[in-house]
Amino acid sequence: MINPWSSKQYFDYEKLKKDFGIENTDNFFNHYLFTRKLIFGQRSISYIEFAIKNKMPFNAVTGLMPSGEMHLGNKITIDQMMYFQSLGARVTIAVADLESYATRGISFEKARNIAINNYIVNYISMGLKPCNIYFQSENYDMQKTAYVLSNETNMSELKAIYGLEDSSSILHVNAPIIQASDVLHVQLGKYGGPAPTIVPVGVDQDPHIRLMRDLAQRYRIYNVKKENTGISVYIRGKNDPHEFIDRAVEILSKNLYKTEINYEYRSIKISNSAPEDDIKIDIILANLEKDFNDMTFIGPSATFQKLETGLKGGKMSSSVPDSLISLNDDPKEAERKIKNAVTGGKKTIEEQKQFGGNPDICPVFELYAYHNPDNEYVTRVYDECKGGARMCGSCKAEAAENISKFLKDLKEKRDESMTKINDYLMNKSL
Ligand code: TRP
Predict the structure, then answer these.
(1) What's the 247 CA to ligand 1 centre distance in angstroms?
(2) Does residue 10 register a pLDDT over 50?
(3) Chain centroid, CA 304 distance in Å
């Protein structure tokens, strides 16, 4: 069981993929986080590809837990959000102040200050373009949707997914439904209607992703299923299916699909579809359905990024200050931490020259791999390390210089970014 509130580190990504049905990222997206497999898995990302290819609207949604400092590990999520924004995504970011209150006891006022000063100002300085950032505690549409979604969520399910117990507080029970609503409510009519939605997360968030995908499906009248015999559509609900079937058949025929109707089974079989047409059909039917069902959601897609290793090995944790670099760190301080990091190097320079280092287990190499888009450069660092031409001392100094340059640049931009904050907040703050 993956529990998003216990802070373990997961290294066996292949096993995770197998156990939880997370899929490969092969051939999707030519961004270094994908091509270097730092995004190691995904769910239904083909919906996002489809939307981009067909110039259809799509969403990118994420949330930030305003609990401390934004660190390099959090940066990767925003790098992805910026990438999807550049591909045309409508970007929405939730400040999870209800969740930080529920799970860490952080007051709303404190959460607000942390979110703005430690996170959002850095997002803007990194280059995120204007988008919709909101506080969970202030977003009525999201809260109302969460209330309705909880009608389709029961305790035994939450117990199974999260290991919640009878003694768990209702606040804790609420958090996953709120998060589902963060992601799903952007598909309400008011926000543009049903559209594919990508949610970049760490793998610890997968239980939330599974729950929100299930919930999305439970509200759909038209359920599109890939079967051996082709694609079928099932009409959910207790109502007379005739009208739903007839309307769907009408629009499917317009799209040149041949259909076989079975009113008794509440089903439509499509006889001339290609296997990958399920996405197209799902989107067509969601757009039909939205006119009589405001809770029409296309199941959200997700990417799962690897957790960046802490500079001391193990996890990046605010309880080990030297294990992580915060985006608000003084550049000199960051340099010091990098110079004191553990590496994948050998014990002596002679051994290193002879046998080479091991960049695959090196947090310093990760600084290059996760934070430098230049493939040629990063490959060279890797090869030099493996081949014994690169020594840890100078490699650390070089990494420190790169990161400190990035931090200096952010620092210079922060004041100006603060003046732009109202272009990002849904509820203006100043
Ligand atoms: N639970 C997430 C975290 O701990 C934060 C979060 C809240 C979130 N709402 C979200 C993440 C919606 C992705 C999508 O970091």
Answers:
(1) 37
(2) no
(3) 7
Q: Please tell me the residue having the least CA distance from ligand 1 atom 7.
A: 63
62 lines ligand 1 (CB under 6 A): yes
Q: How far, in Å, CA of 116 to CA of 72, rounded? A: 17
Long-range pairs for 329-336 at CB < 8 Å and ≥24 separation? 329/69, 329/407, 330/407, 331/403, 331/404, 331/405, 331/407, 331/408, 331/411, 332/404, 334/400, 334/403, 334/404, 334/407, 335/400, 335/401, 335/403, 335/404
Closest protein CA for atom 11 of ligand 1: 63
Is the Cβ–Cβ distance between 36 and 308 less than 8 Å? no
Reported as a single tens digit per residue, the pLDDT across 267-292 is: 999 999 988 899 999 999 999 999 99
pLDDT score at 316: 84
In the reported structure, the alpha carbon of residue 77 is separated from the centroid of ligand 1 by a whole-number distance in angstroms of 11
Task: Give pTM, 2 decimals.
Answer: 0.94
Ligand 1 mutation target, pool 183, 205, 213, 304, most atoms within 8 A of CB? 205
pLDDT in tens, 41-90: 999 999 999 999 999 999 999 999 998 899 999 999 999 999 999 999 99
Question: What does pLDDT average to over the chain?
Answer: 93
- Work out the average pLDDT over 256-264: 95
Query: Which amino acid residue places its CA nearest to atom 5 of ligand 1?
Result: 63
Q: How far is the CA of 409 from the centre of ligand 1 (A)?
A: 27
Per-residue pLDDT of 323-349, as tens digits, reads: 999 999 999 999 999 999 999 999 999
Q: Which residue's CA is the closest to the ligand 1 atom numbered 4?
A: 65
Instruction: Return the ligand 1 atom nearest residue 208 CA.
Output: 1
Q: Is 198 helix (H, G, I), strand (E, B) or coil?
A: strand
Interval between CA 208 and ligand 1 midpoint (Å): 8
* pLDDT surpasses 60 at 9: no
Nearest-angstrom CA–CA distance, 343 and 69: 24
d(CA 6, CA 13): 18
Whole-angstrom distance, CA of residue 116 vs CA of residue 121: 6
User: Separation of 63 CA from ligand 1 center, angstroms?
Assistant: 4
Residue 8 has pLDDT above 60, yes or no: no
